[in-house]
Amino acid sequence: MKIFLDTANIDEIKLAAEANLIDGITTNPTLLSREVERTGKGYKDILIDIAAIVNGPISAEVLSKDVEGMIKEARELQDIAPQIVIKVPMTFDGMKTVRRLEKEGIKSNVTLVFSAVQAMLAAKAGAAFVSPFVGRLDDIGHDGMEIVDEILNVFSNYDFKTEVIVASVRHPKHVKDAALMKADIVTIPFKVLMQLFKHSLTDQGILKFENDWKKVNI
Ligand code: E4P
């Protein structure tokens, strides 16, 4: 399973990249605006900095609601770096945009997906990626991972090539479940990435080995 980092924070990206841990990045307007505020840089410069570190896909989202507006923004984002993938919301105009972008050879990631039929429409439109938001579904009492399972089933029924990015991840169990379901990609916040390394028995084991070793090697 590929791991994307769900952040626009350059320090987090550098740390994860040093360990060769990430295959791509996802951003959204919330994450990018947070970094604009924090660093005082423009969003384009932030994306340029990210692209200098990460060779894999970097998702950046359009904000227009109409097709022409989305296409214009998509071309501007693509000009920043070739590995930029255009995040397009799951709307009627969004899917028309995805189709147009696909014809131009520009990859898109259909975002804000909350059902298997939405994912199917995105795949039919020619999206390279589709992002079901599992955490936001959990937040309203649904089972987000159940939707991922359904999407993976639908895609395998019809041999769609669209890759499934499990998004809106809140904890390591989402990551484990995504891997068990054979999702293509999981995009995770830095905090969750760090949690994946942790187990209390690992910490206890390290401490015990250290203490036992000290008894004979003072
Ligand atoms: C990634 O593509 C999404 O924008 C992100 O995972 C959303 O996460 P959130 O629901 O925690 O905002």
What does this structure look like?
This protein is α/β, with parallel strands linked by helices. It has a single domain (2-216), classed as Alpha-Beta Barrel (TIM Barrel). Helices cover 56% and strands 17% of the residues. The protein is built from eleven helices and eight strands. Strands 1-2-3-4-5-6-7-8 form an eight-stranded parallel barrel, surrounded by seven helices. β3 (58-61), α4 and β4 (84-89) form a beta-alpha-beta unit. α1 packs parallel to α3, α4 (67-80) packs across α5 (92-103) and α6 crosses α8 (144-158). It is globular. The termini are far apart. The mean pLDDT is 97. The protein binds erythose-4-phosphate.
Total domains, how many?
Answer: 1
Q: Uncertain runs with pLDDT below 50, 5 residues or more?
A: none
CATH architecture descriptor text? Alpha-Beta Barrel
**In angstroms, what is the radius of gyration?**
19 Å
Order of helices and strands: EHEHHEHEHEHEHHEHEHH
Can you tell me the CATH topology? TIM Barrel
Total strand segments: 8
What structural class do the secondary elements suggest?
Answer: alpha/beta
In one word, what is the shape? Answer: globular
Which compounds are bound in this model?
Answer: erythose-4-phosphate
Task: Please report the distance between the alpha carbons of the first and last residues.
Answer: 44 Å
- Biggest β-sheet strands, sense, barrel: 8 strands, parallel, barrel
* DSSP helix fraction: 55-70%
